[in-house]
């Protein structure tokens, strides 16, 4: 099931971070508020670059949308009208090809 955060002007960080904690085996598609083919980034829910304290700005969900699901195919289907998502590649859980589903 797809859960979206940041698709309106509300700060949904608390709900988003709770979803990450409740779905450590899940996946997140990070995209602009209006998705573009040039920025459809897949992450594992445990990726440090999409959790904790935001490195830029004060919110995870005000400037970007977080599309969350338990499987990658769900996110690929959601993204298909906009383009093909790509893996973030940040050091850690998203960095190695063999760690991807």
Detailed description of the structure:
With 101 residues, the chain is of the alpha+beta class. The protein has one domain. Helix content is 18%, strand content 22%. The chain has 2 helices and 5 strands; from the N terminus they run βαβββαβ. The chain has helices at residues 13-22, 72-79; strands at 3-5, 27-32, 40-44, 64-69, 86-87. The protein has a 5-stranded mixed sheet with strand order 1-4-2-3-5, with helices on both faces. The longest helix has 10 residues, at 13-22. The chain is globular, with a radius of gyration of 12 Å. The two termini are 17 Å apart. The model has no long low-confidence stretch (mean pLDDT 87).
Stretches with pLDDT under 50, minimum 5 residues: none
Rg estimate, integer Å? 12 Å
Q: State the secondary-structure class.
A: alpha+beta
Q: Report the span from N to C terminus.
A: 17 Å
Quick synopsis:
It contains 2 helices and 5 strands; from the N terminus they run βαβββαβ.
Walk me through the topology.
Elements: E1 3-5, H1 13-22, E2 27-32, E3 40-44, E4 64-69, H2 72-79, E5 86-87
Parallel strand pairs: 3-5
Antiparallel strand pairs: 1-4, 2-3, 2-4
Keywords:
101 residues, alpha+beta, 5-stranded mixed sheet, 2 helices, 18% helix, globular
């Amino acid at each position: 099931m797809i859960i979206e955060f940041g698709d309106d002007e509300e700060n949904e960080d608390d709900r988003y971070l709770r979803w990450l904690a409740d779905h450590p085996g899940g996946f997140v598609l990070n995209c602009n508020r209006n998705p573009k083919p040039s920025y459809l980034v897949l992450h594992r829910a445990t990726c440090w670059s999409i959790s904790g304290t935001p490195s830029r700005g004060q919110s995870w969900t005000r400037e970007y949308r977080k599309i969350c699901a338990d499987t990658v195919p769900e996110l690929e289907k959601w993204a298909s009208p906009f383009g093909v998502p790509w893996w973030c590649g940040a050091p850690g859980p998203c960095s190695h090809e063999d760690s991807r589903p």
